[in-house]
TrEMBL record, chains A, B:
It comes from the Bacteria. This is TetR family transcriptional regulator. GO terms for molecular function: DNA-binding transcription factor activity; transcription cis-regulatory region binding. The keyword DNA-binding applies. The lineage of its organism: Bacteria, Bacillati, Actinomycetota, Actinomycetes, Micromonosporales. InterPro entries: Homeodomain-like_sf (IPR009057), HTH-type_TetR-like_transc_reg (IPR050109), HTH_TetR (IPR001647). It holds the Pfam family TetR_N. The keyword Transcription regulation applies. It comes from Winogradskya consettensis. Gene3D superfamilies: Tetracycline Repressor, domain 2.
Amino acid sequence: MVTAAGKQRFLDAAIRLFARHSVAGTSLQMIGDELGVTKAAVHHHFRSRQELLLAVIEPVCAELLETVEAAEALRGRHARAERALTGFVDVVLGHRELLPVLTGDPGATELLGSHPGLAAVTGRMIGLLAAADPGPGPGGRIRADIVLSGIACAAAPGRNDVAPDNLRTHVVDAGRRTLGLRTPRPGRTTP
Amino acid sequence: MVTAAGKQRFLDAAIRLFARHSVAGTSLQMIGDELGVTKAAVHHHFRSRQELLLAVIEPVCAELLETVEAAEALRGRHARAERALTGFVDVVLGHRELLPVLTGDPGATELLGSHPGLAAVTGRMIGLLAAADPGPGPGGRIRADIVLSGIACAAAPGRNDVAPDNLRTHVVDAGRRTLGLRTPRPGRTTP
């Protein structure tokens, strides 16, 4: 019987190895070695590293969807963009160890780009952020892309020695500046 | 005899394969296959993919250094940050095919992080951008990191269908917003 905790051990090991060696540089054998089990034991749960990668990003995708739905339910483009930005930062800071894989690993990018759930939720997130300061042309979407990618890169482990709370304040502030959002007044912050 | 053009063929093939399969997923054999030569022929010029990666980033590193030195020679923190930002964008747009490797490939990140030239020039670039809006705490450096990473991600090939000139305008504008730089008045733009 495969317990959820048993599966999670494989996912945690995969995240560590993907971040260190990239997806293409990680074999099921290496994941087995990391956990002291055979490659066959890994293969019993996950047929390929692609299947592992998809299982690894599933919770991130679900949290992003929750954030996007909460933002889309608000009224006003500024409130929606603010909710999307702060929610995105919280998802990112909750999965810091995964960021090197999500932001630029070529072995992951192709697979993640073709993941219908992740592509759709990212598109809705970009739409919410771009609408903060709408205008003709692609400026809003380019700013949104820079904010999402830049924050995901800057929050990766080892990138700086700023404490998580302080990092959250500064990356949200940077995102607001880029997108043209004002700092919300105390007491009017959306949850 | 090895001509410069001969070496460049290997570098171009390496860039294509690194971007597609990540550094860890690219073997000297694959580079040989791409060019229709033997692995031994590749190995004759480059002993490892690490050596190839270093040769590939050498011109980027040299151009970033030129930009940083030109910016540091100016007077005034705004003029210096503006010069560093626009110079960085030009370097990035001149090497778009390399961006997936530079921004997040875990196999490249470790090696590039330990490259003394690239680490030093990146540190000076972050210092120039952070000084645009100085203040206590790490906010300036975090904004600079988000600008550099975000632009390098957003300008990667296939990320959007915006024409290069238009893309340049929008990413420079986004960088100025994040850093707190005004759009320079026409005629006063630094070269």
